[in-house]
């Protein structure tokens, strides 16, 4: 055959195609042997997984031969040969590892396949074919892994929404923790629930905004948009300004943070208090952002939250009464005279310094300073709630 005839050839002979197909098994076995030699992680794989790789390579060789037989079907055949395979192996082989496997297989193909050619023209066709086929394989693998990642992301988003919904509804601890663990959450980590308005109607944008702020703070986060409400579960301690940074991811309006609890299993308590605070925060227009649900106890109690009523009794009214002496009487009198020290002293027939001492003692017991307008409101509501609870026989 003349050189001009050889150079014009665009297909392989039937004999060469037959030899290629017969050699597919040996090529696949040689490729797997080379992978075992060069890749320690591949040697550690179970035998059944290595066998799956062997079958994949042999299928790839057969697809390559079919494509050589009919080059017009390149995209279809390469997609069928390699696009479906990563969906199976992606469960136990990463994308980086898949690239290593493909590279080794293609290097072996480049070395072995031209040897089957009958002449220089066929060798050129085989060399060019391996390069083009390898490119299609790379695109197919990348597409498959991207699709798998997208599917996993969608599943994780659904699972995350179930976890957050379970926290809000107070689901059983076992199911909640198992789902959260599947998302990589540390069940022993402290948790704080924040609720407020989402910043937009675009859920992916909301997720990105919250996650990026949590990542910059080095915190775990779970979130869900429930209608017009954004619920965020923040992992770790809530000290410093971390709550403030996370609250910037919320939309306009108040943001309420529940108490920080010891683990995710207790997060339903934080969620319950936060949601109660969100319903009642309208009663305190000057509330900071975020505002702790504990700081909304008066508004929550006025809105009919029995948990808030109990906390006011337990945190303020009971400690003042249990302290004995005249602490409760002094605080009550101080509030009644509008916070005027001298008037309170005259009403109680004591020295003003005695009033000062008793008020300091009350602050130590309750964490509320009667001289602060906001704390004075909390104290007044707590004492009223305490009297009502006692009258009903609840205390």
Automatic annotation (TrEMBL):
<feature type="domain" description="CdaR GGDEF-like">
    <location>
        <begin position="170"/>
        <end position="280"/>
    </location>
</feature>
<feature type="domain" description="PucR C-terminal helix-turn-helix">
    <location>
        <begin position="327"/>
        <end position="384"/>
    </location>
</feature>
<comment type="similarity">
    <text>Belongs to the CdaR family.</text>
</comment>
<dbReference type="InterPro" id="IPR051448">
    <property type="entry name" value="CdaR-like_regulators"/>
</dbReference>
<dbReference type="Pfam" id="PF13556">
    <property type="entry name" value="HTH_30"/>
</dbReference>
<protein>
    <submittedName>
        <fullName>PucR family transcriptional regulator</fullName>
    </submittedName>
</protein>
<dbReference type="InterPro" id="IPR042070">
    <property type="entry name" value="PucR_C-HTH_sf"/>
</dbReference>
<dbReference type="InterPro" id="IPR041522">
    <property type="entry name" value="CdaR_GGDEF"/>
</dbReference>
<dbReference type="Pfam" id="PF17853">
    <property type="entry name" value="GGDEF_2"/>
</dbReference>
<dbReference type="InterPro" id="IPR025736">
    <property type="entry name" value="PucR_C-HTH_dom"/>
</dbReference>
